[in-house]
């Protein structure tokens, strides 16, 4: 990590998030620097869906070069289901698989439109990536795997269900 310019931060610290946004803005304004690789989901999912993107990556401006990545599990599954397999079992399965095959699509560059906020821009990029990979779009983030569901989210889903019924 010392050979490249990683930006490490604690997501729960507001001060760190502002510092990261500032560092990203400075980085993209310097045309001599290489592009930044960001995984805006913040976590991995099981290769079927694209979760909510964290908006911070889309607040700083600049051009986004979306990349859709989807693993082909025919020879070995790269996804680690931590509720089903221990780290040792996962590592063993990964190391003894025939191959890890991954499809990668480099999509056309995207720029935030004038009337668009960071959340809408992130959702537009997410939809393009999901469509290319043949995956579904999820309106929630990876935190649901590890945390209790917020009451406001439950209420929103209940309202949507009531409208359908």
TrEMBL record:
It comes from the Eukaryota. One of its GO terms (cellular component) is endoplasmic reticulum membrane. Residues 1-70 form the Phospholipid/glycerol acyltransferase domain. GO terms for molecular function: glycerol-3-phosphate O-acyltransferase activity. It is a multi-pass membrane protein. Pathway: Phospholipid metabolism; CDP-diacylglycerol biosynthesis; CDP-diacylglycerol from sn-glycerol 3-phosphate: step 1/3; Lipid metabolism; Glycerolipid metabolism; triacylglycerol biosynthesis. It is found in: Endoplasmic reticulum membrane. It holds the Pfam family Acyltransferase. One of its GO terms (biological process) is phospholipid biosynthetic process. Its main location: endoplasmic reticulum. Keywords: Acyltransferase, Endoplasmic reticulum, Lipid biosynthesis, Lipid metabolism, Membrane, Phospholipid biosynthesis, Phospholipid metabolism, Transferase, Transmembrane, Transmembrane helix. InterPro entries: LPCAT1-like (IPR045252), Plipid/glycerol_acylTrfase (IPR002123). Belongs to the 1-acyl-sn-glycerol-3-phosphate acyltransferase family. This is Glycerol-3-phosphate acyltransferase 3.
């Amino acid at each position: 990590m010392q050979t490249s310019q990683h930006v490490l931060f604690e997501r729960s610290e507001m001060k760190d998030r502002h510092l990261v946004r500032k560092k990203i803005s400075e980085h993209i304004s310097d045309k001599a620097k290489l592009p930044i690789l960001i995984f805006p989901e913040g976590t991995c999912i099981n290769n079927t869906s694209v979760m909510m993107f964290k908006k911070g990556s889309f607040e700083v401006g600049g051009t986004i070069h979306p990349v859709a990545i989807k693993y082909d599990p025919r020879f070995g599954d790269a996804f680690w289901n931590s509720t089903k397999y221990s780290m040792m079992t996962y590592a063993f399965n990964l190391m003894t698989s025939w191959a890890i095959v991954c499809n990668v699509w480099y999509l056309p560059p995207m720029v935030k439109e004038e009337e668009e906020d960071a959340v809408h821009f992130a959702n537009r990029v997410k939809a393009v990536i999901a469509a290319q990979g043949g995956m579904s779009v999820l309106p929630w983030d990876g935190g649901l795997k590890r945390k209790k569901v917020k009451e406001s989210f439950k209420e929103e889903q209940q309202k949507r269900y009531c409208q359908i019924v």
